[in-house]
Amino acid sequence: GQNIDQPTEMTATEGAIVQINCTYQTSGFNGLFWYQQHAGEAPTFLSYNVLDGLEEKGRFSSFLSRSKGYSYLLLKELQMKDSASYLCAVRDDSGGYQKVTFGTGTKLQVIP
Amino acid sequence: GAVVSQHPSRVICKSGTSVKIECRSLDFQATTMFWYRQFPKKSLMLMATSNEGSKATYEQGVEKDKFLINHASLTLSTLTVTSAHPEDSSFYICSANTGGAKFFGPGTRLTVL
After folding, report:
1. Which of B34, B43, B97 sits opposite A105 (nearest CB)?
2. Which helix (H) or strand (E) holds B33?
3. Torsion (CA) A40, A42, A43, A45 in degrees, nearest 10
4. CA B112, CA B82: separation in Å to the nearest integer?
5. A103 contacts in B (CB within 8 Å)?
């Protein structure tokens, strides 16, 4: 099975930087996704990390450490529209087919 | 990015009726599609993996006779909620993978009265 842990809620100020952590335990790890989900909408893809290290994509960066079972999503220059839930999801191929399991999500509130 | 569509986006039905939800990959072929269910303020729960040309793989606790999945072509998977009840009311989302990323459809909000 899989165990994915991320904080339930976070609050940050407009223009600031926020880091959302995700820890996981899985047997057949083959990548970690980050998604953004606004209320009432489907998730939108942000990043996919397979190898250790930091991947930067504009204001968003994602980091992965496979040995530590740890990832974080870094959001810079926060904007009000960044208020959303951020879902960490782990891909596991151990069952003979690709399976992605989602964490419970971190609800980020950006305040002025 | 790749586009996945779902239809309908919103449906209200009476208890006991069946509802079909379509998931299409618009600009790529998907041999595998995934169906998720999301309860209010909860994360996504994988219901089943839809495989083109073969039977779907259901997650533990998901009734295959209640949630019928048909993956008829490389661009279309359907989820039919049979004999729907109010407890089936939820947000149903499909996804498909391409280019190493997973893309979601916009979701279908089902309300069973």
Report:
1. B43
2. strand B32-38
3. -140
4. 12
5. 43
Hey, what are A17's tokens? 């930087």
Mean of per-residue pLDDT scores for chain B: 90
CA distance B57 to B48: 5
Length of chain A: 112
Q: Which residues contact B76 (CB under 8 A, 6 or more apart)?
A: B22, B23, B24
Rounded to whole angstroms, how far apart are CA atoms B76 and B31? 9
Give the three-class secondary structure for A55: strand
Q: DSSP H helical segments within chain B, as ranges? A: none
Query: Which residue of chain A is at minimal alpha-carbon distance from B92?
Result: A42
How near does any CA of chain B get to the CA of A106, in Å?
10
Burial B60-86 (b: 16+ CB within 10 A, else e): eebeeeebbbebeeebbbbbebeebee
Q: Is A103 exposed, middle or buried (0-12, 13-18, 19+ CB in 10 A)?
A: buried
Under an 8 A CB cutoff, do A104 and B42 touch? yes
List CB contacts of B56: < 8 A, sequence separation 6 or more.
B48, B49, B50, B64, B69, B71
The encoded tokens of residue B42 equal 């909860």
- The larger pLDDT score, comparing residue B44 to residue A56, is at A56
Model confidence band, residue A97 (pLDDT cutoffs 50, 70, 90): low
Q: For A57-72, write each residue's pLDDT tens digit.
A: 999 999 999 999 999 9
